[in-house]
Design a protein that fits this description.
6 helices
Length: 262
């Protein structure tokens, strides 16, 4: 990928397993991603931001995949993988890309260690100039008791990111890592974290906050569950990094970045 070619990415856990206002929340999420702002902001005439070129979504369920996500994103020029729901039941992850990137192929695989049956999703993309990009997304093991599986899954992703024969590779997803877990394993992993390369901006650190059954925050302490990891074989520059908070849509913030490999 050329020195002047940055890729604009966004990753977001849509909280699809929470059925409260699910269809409305999915609709609002698509508007926020495609327009770069909420409907209220659009009506108020506030400036919008360009839509991301690559989107990774977690906690997608069949209901909103078919009724909302696919029609809205395809209408906005995105190609989706998987295009059809991955499962009859449960949630899964997906990747979407729009020009100048085209979707070449995608695949999915099961993590070697996952009591909850978590899977990774991979998409190979090609730019109009011929440059290639590999994108991986996943929703790593949930629950506090899943720390050992989360660590094993991160090591598996580290091997995928370290593939010397692969094009520049980006992981976008919900890792569920607690701070102590991350500190314990970080030194053993070769990939780079976009948050670190961006200078660890404090306001963009937390991406998830605990909530009650009504969707209200129960604590001001947030966690950095959602992350962007970059393969160690390219010297990446992070030219933009921020969290996008839409608390009425999901308990997770969307994480957005502009990434430049060399």
């Amino acid at each position: 990928m050329g020195d002047r070619l940055a890729v604009h990415v966004l990753t977001w856990n849509l909280d699809g397993l929470t059925t409260r206002r699910l269809d409305r929340r999915a609709e609002e999420a698509c508007v926020a991603m495609v327009l770069g702002q909420t409907l209220r902001e659009a009506v108020e005439g506030k400036p919008s931001r360009p839509p991301p070129q690559v989107i990774a979504l977690q906690e997608v369920v069949k209901r909103i995949h078919l009724s909302t996500i696919r029609p809205h994103l395809e209408a906005a020029g995105y190609a989706l993988w998987p295009g059809e729901p991955a499962r009859e039941d449960g949630d899964y992850s997906m990747i979407a890309a729009r020009p100048p990137w085209s979707l070449v192929r995608g695949r999915s695989g099961a993590f070697g260690d996952s009591p909850l049956g978590r899977r990774w999703v991979e998409a190979h993309l090609e730019h109009t100039d011929g440059s290639r990009l590999r994108v991986i997304t996943a929703h790593l093991e949930s629950l506090r008791s899943g720390g050992g599986s989360r660590a094993a899954q991160a090591r598996e992703l580290d091997q995928m990111l370290g593939d010397p024969d692969a094009p520049p590779t980006v992981f976008l997803g919900d890792t569920n890592f607690r701070g102590s877990e991350w500190r314990a394993i970080q030194r053993d992993l070769a990939f780079d974290d976009a948050f670190d390369l961006a200078g660890r901006p404090p306001r963009d650190s937390p991406t998830w906050w605990p909530r009650d059954d009504h969707g209200n925050r129960t604590s001001d302490r947030g966690f950095r569950f959602d992350r962007i990891w970059l393969d160690p074989g390219h010297r990446w520059t992070v030219t933009g990094f921020q969290t996008r908070h839409h608390s009425r849509i999901s308990d997770h913030a969307a994480l957005e970045a502009h990434l430049l490999p060399k």
